[in-house]
Design brief:
The protein folds into 3 domains: 114 residues, Acid Proteases (Cathepsin D, subunit A, domain 1); 138 residues, Cathepsin D, subunit A, domain 1 (Beta Barrel); 82 residues, PDZ domain (Pdz3 Domain). Helix content is 8%, strand content 41%. The protein has 6 helices and 28 strands. The strands form 4 sheets. The protein has a 13-stranded mixed β-sheet. The longest helix has 10 residues. It is globular, with a radius of gyration of 21 Å. The N and C termini lie far apart (46 Å).
Length: 382
């Protein structure tokens, strides 16, 4: 016996607000009002609602009682409310989180790993589907058997020669594999010819993050070898999630494997896909413009050498003023500005007219977007 929950996709996520970011949706009701939560196995609480959405629902809120530790997020609570989650009904308080106002989000909040940790289910990131099972399905030898730890996030221990590899399975982000900073530096040194672009996103505990993103034609973690996956460096919030953190798998990485999780017995099964990868939506500008922190007003350039933006003269620390006549200096107040990623992720061949400021000089450039990361581009030598 099994039931299926079909997923809808959305362009911007709350807890990984970056480029194209798909979601697994969970229908629910709060005090009888229909709402949608996003399912996030990287989220360590059972359920949280964004503070602004809680207010819209008329819920009274108790704010966080203390400042969070580095790499952590602060949560308040709602007054007790009636929560209908599928066939399960609760009368309970719900955690709240202050999402920055300028980040657009379709979900009212997050359903985290603890809410489903005792279930047996499969995850299909390609079909965007979650299937629950009454009993664990039988698997054959090609599957890699892993341990599911009792962490507050969906954490796997992948067996390897003489050790295990701790990996976070995170449905809350659309990225591929994010590696521990040390492992990321090792990977970069061994793959100097791989193309690089940039990704900018927001994550509680980490704040605003800008990271290089590349592509691995083959990536091995213990007994598991994935092919054709995006790869980048993990942020502070990810690395502090577990003392033994090695990597995290986002939805783009999950598309490269089949996944069965048996939370009831603390085991899981992974099987790499051998099919050709789907085109990967990524930053085709080779640059991002982001505020230095949540209080800053200016959108500041981060540019990778050799990319389309660099080729037309854009450099680090240039300020973004306009995109095709859209005044981007009003990004906090004009709902038409964000998300900027919709411009960077436009198809190859698209032309972006950017107005930027350097010092006292303001100038315009036309940038032709290019496919930077495979599988859209030809493979490099390593």
């Amino acid at each position: 016996m099994k039931t299926s929950l079909t997923i809808i996709s959305v362009l911007v996520s709350s807890f990984w607000a970056g480029a194209i970011d798909e979601r697994i949706w969970v229908d629910a009701k709060i005090n009888g009002h229909p709402v949608q939560f996003a399912f996030d196995t990287g989220f360590g609480l059972p359920i949280a609602i964004f503070t602004s959405e809680a207010r819209k629902l008329g819920l009274k809120i108790t704010p966080p009682s203390h400042e969070p530790d580095p790499g952590k997020a602060a949560f308040g609570t709602t007054e007790p409310c009636d929560l209908d989650l599928g066939t399960t009904n609760f009368h309970t308080t719900v955690f709240t989180y202050d999402l920055p106002d300028y980040l657009k989000e379709k979900a009212v909040g997050i359903v985290g790993w603890p809410a489903v940790s005792e279930n047996i289910f499969s995850l299909d990131a390609i079909r965007q589907e979650m299937v629950f099972f009454k009993d664990a399905p039988k698997v054959d030898k090609p599957w890699v058997k892993v341990n599911v730890t009792t962490n507050t996030q969906l954490t796997l221990e992948i067996p390897g020669p003489g050790r295990t590899y701790t990996v976070l399975l995170d449905t809350g982000k659309g990225a591929g594999v994010t590696l521990h900073p040390k492992r990321w530096q090792e990977w970069k040194l061994a793959h100097t010819n791989q193309p690089v672009t940039l990704e900018a996103y927001f994550m509680p505990g980490a704040g605003l993050v800008v990271r290089e993103e590349s592509f691995a034609h083959e990536l091995t973690l213990g007994a598991l070898t994935l092919t054709e996956v995006p790869v980048m460096e993990a942020n502070q919030a990810e690395t502090t999630s577990d003392d033994h953190f090695e990597a995290a798998f986002g939805l783009a990485a999950m598309k490269r494997m089949e996944i069965i999780i048996d939370g009831k017995h603390g085991i899981g099964y992974l099987r790499p896909r051998q099919t050709s990868p789907q085109p990967y939506e990524h930053n085709r500008l080779g640059a991002v413009f982001a505020p230095k922190d949540l209080q800053s007003e200016n959108l500041v350039a981060h540019v990778v050498p050799g990319g389309p933006a660099f080729a037309v003269g854009i450099r680090d620390n240039d300020l973004l003023m306009k995109i095709r006549g859209l005044d981007t200096t009003k990004w906090r107040t004009d709902p038409n500005v964000l998300p900027l990623s919709r411009f960077w992720n436009s198809p190859a061949g698209s032309i972006l007219e950017l107005t930027v400021k350097r010092g006292e000089n303001i100038f315009k450039v036309d940038v032709v977007l290019e496919n930077i990361l495979p599988p859209d581009t030809a493979k490099r030598s390593n």
